[in-house]
């Protein structure tokens, strides 16, 4: 056995002449280059002459000459007329304090780190929702501080991580909406891989649709309304409403859940419409948790589908008018190019006076005799039903 072990060790030594089992890791020998010397200055408080303060109160110390050498925006701010006048008011040995209300301390730290080291620690970290949101802020900061190299590195991080983990796209879109600058790659990933981006599986990196706020959810649903299956949109809305679980003791989590369910129900009525697969859509709505606890909707699917077909028209479609009063006595349907009517806060389309008169001939004759009759009837209906919607009042008028 000893001969065999010696032969095997000699074999590996022959394949790797410098191989040794007793070797110890050696320290990295510094090359004394200018890049390494510049990296060593990062965080050195003795040489720093300026302090950047973020909106959260955190501070980052730096050398103004290094920042000015990397960015023209820093150069004009530190060494321009405003910068010279601000330095003239400082005491000897006092650091200049510059407050940025648009950025927090983390973003400023990454910007300063890039100016020193030409890289950022966030790029080497494990991708998470927090890192994705931070990268979304850093992307906007790179353009604001005129750092094209940092912008390129942010794009490289996006191509590498978002393509590998599509569930991070929603987090970047949500943060981009707050800055009015949504990442194109994240939006493209959402459109090409909607299920992987919004409904990630077990073990996937990223929260998916759960990372979106209410404005972010509305933006995503509006973006995917015409190109994605409405069955998938219904599943997305249901997943979003389950983000907040009801509490056991306090009533605030339960109230938050009720609010999210009400918002999700409005989104379902807003963005989901009938299509060719009506039977499957009816079954999905019947099994949906959004409508199970609603007495007016749980009594039957016909009422739910009636809401989707009636006044809750959420997609812009051309209006069609029927001319029933022509001389020949025939009805001809023709499409008009009238401008789309404005939507209300919850997406209801209010019918105009002409449409109501054409659809309700009995009331039209009464209105011709007494134009103030409609206003009087609406006021009476509002007193009888204070919380009723305009559509409900119109239906009650038609019944009269």
UniProtKB/TrEMBL annotation:
Gene3D superfamilies: Potassium Channel Kv1.1, Chain A. Residues 322-337 have a biased composition (Low complexity). Pfam families: BTB. SMART domains: BTB. It comes from Chaetoceros debilis. This is BTB domain-containing protein. Signal peptide: none annotated. Residues 48-124 form the BTB domain. Residues 317-339, 378-400 are annotated as: Disordered.
